[in-house]
Amino acid sequence: MLVVSSPSAVEECFTKNDITFANRPRTMAGQHLTYNSTVPVWAPYGHLWRNLRRVATIEIFSHISLQKSSIIREEEVYYLLRQMLKVSNIEPQKVDFKYLSTLLVSNIMMRMVAGKPCVGEEFACMDVGKQLLKEFKDSYFASSTVNICDFFPILKWVGYKGLEKNMIRMQKMRDGALGRLIEEMKQKKPHVEKKRTLIETLFSLRESEPEFYSDNVIKSIILVSSSTYFSLVKVIEIETCTYLKIQTK
Question: How many Å apart are CA 36 and CA 32, to the nearest integer?
Fold first, then answer.
C-alpha cells in the first residue's frame, strides 16, 4: 500500500508514472495459474491487457451476450428446482443447497463456454455427479490470489510448504482439461451465430487475429468466465438463505 500525502506526489503518481501504478504485481499464482499472467486481472498494463479487456467486455459481459445466454440460465434454474423437487418428493428432507447452487453455476458456465453441462441432470443427485463436480471445481476454480511467497521471495526458493509445486501440479491438470475441451470444440460443427458458445466465438475471432487468439489466450478467457460465475455461488447461497428466513417469519 502506498500513502501519498502531498499534491505534487499525487500528480507525479497519476501523470508521470501512471502506467507504473496501473500495472499489476508479478505473482506466483499469476505466473503458474494464468498462463504467465494472460488473464485480465493479472496481465500487465499494455496492448495485451487492453485486448483482453475488450474481449471480456464485448464477448462475456455485454448486454447482448448476456441476453443470448438467458435461455441457458432459465433452463438450468428449472433443472435445479426439479432436482430439489425430486429430493423432497416423498417427504421433507434436508437439501445440500451449496452443492446444488455450485452445480447450477457450473452448468450455466459450461453451457455458455462449450455448449454442454458440467454434470448431466441424470447424475446430479448421485455420488458420481458430486465427484464430477468436485473434479470440475478442482480444474477450473483454483485460487489465484497472492500468497506469502510473493512478499518474501526467498520462501519460494526453498519451496515453502510446497506452494509452487502444488500450483504447477494444479495448472497441469487444469491445462489438460482446458486443452481437451478446446480440441473437442475444434472437431464440432459450429452453431449459428445466435447460439454460438464462447469458444466458438473466440475461434471465429481467431480468423481475423490469429496472432492474438492463441490457445493459451482462449484458455485464459475461459478462466475469466468461470471464475466470474463461480463467485456467484456464495451470493446465491446468501440471498436464498435470507429469502427463506424472511418467509419463515
Answer: 6
Mean pLDDT of the chain: 79
In the 3-class helix/strand/coil scheme, how is the chain assigned residue by residue?
CCCCCCHHHHHHHHHHCHHHHHCCCCCHHHHHHCCCCCCCCCCCCCHHHHHHHHHHHHHHCCHHHHHHCHHHHHHHHHHHHHHHHHHCCCCCCCCCHHHHHHHHHHHHHHHHHHCCCCCCHHHCCCHHHHHHHHHHHHHHCCCCCCCHHHHCHHHHHCCHHHHHHHHHHHHHHHHHHHHHHHHHHHHCCCCCHHHCCHHHHHHHHHCCCCCCCCHHHHHHHHHHHHHHHHCHHHHHHHHHHHHHHHHHC
Cα dihedral 165, 170, 176, 178 sign: negative
pLDDT at res. 247: 57
Domains and CATH numbers, the chain: 28-248 (1.10.630.10)
Residues in the chain: 249
pLDDT tens digit sequence for 176-214: 888 888 888 888 776 666 678 888 888 888 888 888 888
Predicted TM-score (pTM) of the model is: 0.76
C-alpha cell at 169: 501440479
